[in-house]
Amino acid sequence: MSKEKTIKIRQAKLKKAVLEQLMRTPIIEIACEKVGISRMTFYRWTKASKEFAKQVEEALFEGRLFISDIAESQLFSLVKDKKIEAIKYVLRHNNPRYADRLELSGTVSTKDEPLTATQKGLIRQALKLSSLRNYGQNKKQQK
Questions:
Q1: Is the pLDDT of residue 92 over 60?
Q2: What is the pTM of this model?
């Protein structure tokens, strides 16, 4: 067997092992450490192969789902143990009656009043200073 073929077989095994680790623990540093490769090697593989990069994203997604399931089960265990903070958290995030709310009250009214001469002058001055410098001139030319 040639040296190149041996390297490819070893790399394939290592890539598979990294993907399996990422499904259990979605942290690249830890997965690389457990498999025995450097992060630099991992990132070189992802850069060189779009297929491997896609598999990495899928493994990370699966790993995050797995960790979320573990966290949820721990949270529900705390609720069963009557831990008040866990109970509050579950209620606040899963029951609209206990959700944090902000209540606003008041009225909105609009007045349809013509601008005063001073207000018109201020607006004209602001438009001149803005990027619409030729505002008044273009209006005169259109008439």
A1: yes
A2: 0.62
- CB contact at 8 A, 46 and 53: yes
CA gap 26, 31 in Å, rounded: 8
Kindly state whether residue 38 falls inside one of the protein's structural domains: yes
pLDDT value of residue 73? 94
Is residue 74 assigned to a domain? no
Residue carrying the six token digits 């699966």:
62
Structural domain count, the chain: 2
d(Cα 127, Cα 76) in Å, to the nearest integer?
60
3-state secondary structure of 139: helix
Rounded Cα distance between 124 and 116, Å, is 12
d(CA 70, CA 91): 19
Range of the domain at 9: 3-69
Query: Could you tell me if residue 108 is inside a domain?
Result: no
